Write a sequence for this structure.
C-alpha cells in the first residue's frame, strides 16, 4: 500500500481521484486544493507519490510544486491535467514526471499511471547506492547537491535537464560536475557514471 497526496483544485475531480486510488488499496493522506498547501507540507507529511494538477490555484503552479518535490524530497509525481498542447508538455518534461494523464480520465488510466510510477521509482531506489555507500566505497565526501547530480547523471540527463529539475543555472551544474570529476579522479561524465554505477 502506498501513501498518496492529491493536489487538485476541482473538488469533484479530487474526490474522484481519491475514490479511484483508494479502490486500488492505497491510502490518500491528504487532498489539497492549491500548490502553496502542497509545498507547505513537504517534510511534515511523508507520501510515496503525488498526483498533481498543472494549472492549479495559489501562487505556485503544479510545475513549480514538481520542482520543489525534485529539490527537497525526491518522490515520484504524476501530472493529472487537461493540457495536452506541445508547450505545456515541453515544460512538464523538464521536471521529469513519472506519468502524465489527460483529463477526462478513467480508472484504468489512473491505475496504470500509479502502479508504473511506484514500481519504476522502487526499482530506481534499489539500483543506486546511497550517499553514504558511495562515500565509503570511493573514500570521498559528497555535498547533497553533488550526490543529487550523480543520481541525475545515472539517469542519462543532460546538464540543461539537471538545471531545470534542480532549479539552478547550467553553470552551477557544471561547477558540481567539475567538483565530482576531481573527487572521483575522472575527466568526463561518461567515466564518472561508469565509476559510480559499477558493481551496483
Amino acid at each position: 500500500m502506498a501513501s498518496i497526496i492529491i493536489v487538485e483544485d476541482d473538488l469533484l475531480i479530487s474526490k474522484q481521484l481519491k475514490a479511484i486510488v483508494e479502490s486500488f488499496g492505497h491510502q490518500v493522506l491528504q487532498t489539497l486544493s492549491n500548490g502553496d498547501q502542497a509545498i507547505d507540507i513537504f517534510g511534515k507529511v511523508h507520501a510515496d507519490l503525488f498526483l498533481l494538477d498543472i494549472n492549479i490555484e495559489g501562487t505556485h503552479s503544479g510545475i513549480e510544486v514538481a520542482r520543489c518535490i525534485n529539490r527537497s524530497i525526491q518522490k515520484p509525481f504524476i501530472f493529472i491535467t487537461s493540457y495536452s498542447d506541445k508547450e505545456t508538455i515541453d515544460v512538464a518534461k523538464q521536471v521529469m514526471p513519472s506519468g502524465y494523464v489527460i483529463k477526462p480520465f478513467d480508472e484504468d488510466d489512473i491505475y496504470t499511471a500509479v502502479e508504473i510510477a511506484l514500481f519504476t521509482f522502487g526499482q530506481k531506489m534499489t539500483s543506486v547506492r546511497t550517499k553514504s555507500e558511495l562515500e565509503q566505497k570511493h573514500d570521498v565526501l559528497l555535498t547533497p547537491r553533488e550526490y543529487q547530480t550523480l543520481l541525475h547523471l545515472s539517469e542519462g540527463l543532460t546538464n540543461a535537464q539537471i538545471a531545470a529539475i534542480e532549479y539552478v543555472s547550467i553553470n552551477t551544474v557544471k561547477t558540481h560536475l567539475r567538483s565530482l570529476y576531481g573527487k572521483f579522479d575522472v575527466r568526463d561524465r561518461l567515466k564518472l557514471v561508469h565509476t559510480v554505477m559499477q558493481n551496483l
Summary: Residues 24 and 111 are 7 Å apart (CA to CA).
